[in-house]
Amino acid sequence: MTCCDQRCGLITGMVLGALIAVLGGILIPVGDLFIKNTVNKEVVLENGTLAFDTWTSVDISVYRQFWIYDVQNPDDVLAQGAKPKLAQKGPYTYKTRYIPKTNITFNDNYTVSFVLEAGAIFEPSMSVGSEEDVFTTLNLAVAGLYGSFDHKLANVLINMFIASLFQKRTVRELLWGYREPMLNMTMLGVFYPYNGTTDGPYTVFTGKDDVNNVAMIDRWQGEKSVSYWDDTYCNMINGTDGASFPPFLDKKKPLEFFSPDICRSISTVYDSTIDLKGINVYRYKLPAEALASPADNPDNQCYCTNNVTTNGCTMAGLLDVTSCRGIPVYISLPHFLYASEDVLQGVEGLSPNFDEHSIFMDVEPITGFTLRFAKRLQLNMFYGPSKDILILNNITKNTVFPILWVNETAVLDDETAEMFKKELISRIDLLEGFQIGFLASGSVIFVLCLIWFIVASRKSK
Q: How confident is the model at residue 409 (pLDDT cuts 50, 70, 90)?
């Protein structure tokens, strides 16, 4: 009777263990479905969702850090045509995007429109100096006239009104604007106008009908494409604005976003998985081919403007945004990272560094939320030799001159990180713990009872 009871108990244990293991196995697809449904619900842009609360919030601070190049040898450049020797100083930090989205309008439950208002507040504690620090930099009026008009008209205006290729300006003046007395008091500045201006309106998909479209841009400034480039492909507005992406990221697929700063859409590729305040995120980086010459990346042919600056578009690392900005400005990565050697060798004092000068985004792969980013860009202008312009008589080479570079950056704060982990990560971890626990414990019970049953059977024989 005892032997029968033992065998029955072991069989019962095996059955129970198998059932527990099966339950754990069943919980895996059921749990995954639960997670997917929960995430798909919370990432939709509508009142009451986690995504909408995050999307409308300005709790995460966004900063723009500026490094400005100071010309060390202006007299030698003018008198002997020497290479400009540059020394960067920074950061000069401003808090931006502290104004919530405005004019939020749900159009048809499937799209929502909004406007971003621009503002910048100087942060002395995060800066190396004050807004009154003075720099010797390229005369914006010279570079603007040199690249904007036909040479005869530019020659006359520059010779009549402008005395030097370089000028001394404060940080405030260079960034946000100053009156140029030689040009009838015209306001000039790298980012003039900025405060009080708006970006958009944007119209993006809410994801309510298809979560794979959430945050994707439908229209910008009322249009489905831009008109800066003489090509349908380059004028396309692809992806999101970079703040978030559709959920459940695939490492093999690039993330696309549209940036008004560079007047085009661009792609980033998966680089690595890292830990950000206890949250696993995918790091996406801008690849070298994004700003490669058309010879190396044919997709960039339609961004080619065939001007003298890029030597017929054979040079890498420069994007001519003149048609977008209205003034001759060329965008690159800081310190001419990924640029052709001829561009980098046109000035002295630059030292491109991948870790400091590349663009990256850290995106939480389940929700698609961007939790940290660094958008680094350098603004350049151009000047070259001229027999007719007095201040350029001794210049011997075409020069792409870097004015400054900017790092627009943000990272979720500790409080938001804890909330994110509590509301999402901890629940997923708990569910996965149950799945693994049931599967493991059931398997262990089944195996132990099976071994014991086999041993007991042999003894009885």
A: very high
